Description:
Elements: E1 5-10, H1 12-24, E2 30-34, H2 41-49, E3 53-56, H3 59-67, E4 73-78, H4 86-89, E5 94-100, E6 108-109, H5 112-118, E7 123-130, E8 140-147, H6 154-178, E9 194-195, H7 212-221, E10 234-237, E11 240-249, E12 257-261, E13 267-268
Parallel strand pairs: 1-2, 1-4, 2-3, 4-5, 6-9
Antiparallel strand pairs: 5-7, 7-8, 10-11, 11-12, 12-13
Helix pairs in contact: 1-6, 5-7
Amino acid sequence: MFFDKLLIIGSGSICINVIKSLIEKDVKPICLLYKEHPISSLSMMLKNKGLEHYTFDDKNKLKEFLESINDNTLILSVNNIYLFPKSVVRKPNIKIINFHNALLPYHRGMNAPTWTIFEQDKFAGITWHIVNENIDDGDIIIQKKIELNNTETALYLIKQLMTLAFCAYKEIEDDILNWTIKTTPMPKTNTIQIHYSKDVPNNGFYNEKWDNLKKSAFLRALDWGCINQFQKPKLIKNDEVFIINNYKINKTNTSDIEIELSLENLKISRGGDF
């Protein structure tokens, strides 16, 4: 391996799979857990395998740790919510590679699958890229995409993209470890918006004036299943705010949309008609 140390920071199944793949190559990564639940599957795996790992709940403590690194070090950012400060990115002895669940430069920032669905993109995808001083802006190592069919929920799309991302990682793993990767510059544009964690499509409100495909996209974009990534979508009717507790979309006829509201148990069907 080209590097003296390999650190990995992230969460979820893809992070676990990358760690297992590294172990198979006799590479033992040092794992950094940032705001990770102590009994998460990742935490348990690290303990069971006896891998060196450190837990951080304070971003400043993590920054201090990374700034103290003097060895020639590779950091893999895999499904990671920590934003590397410039003081770390600028260190000449550190290289950072990040996985992002969108086809960059589109949907930089947080919750990319939600925005991919809401904006009714024809394709979704993943990007492995070098980390620079800007958000999701560094040179691209590899991208892969899938075609969308207007039925995916955010949760379903996330699972698809995680699988796709690991397949892409396996293609570039040897080049990453030996630092023989080939990159292409990130396309530059002034029209691409960065999505922050506080951002919600249409501020979380269902619009009855949307066409049926947009209504469907909005509902599916906020559907993370049992993961409470967003508050439930809302609808304004007669100056009252209703919470959309459930919805149903006919997959063979997308004009057939049904939503259930919380207050008067009102039901909207056929694309928004009461």
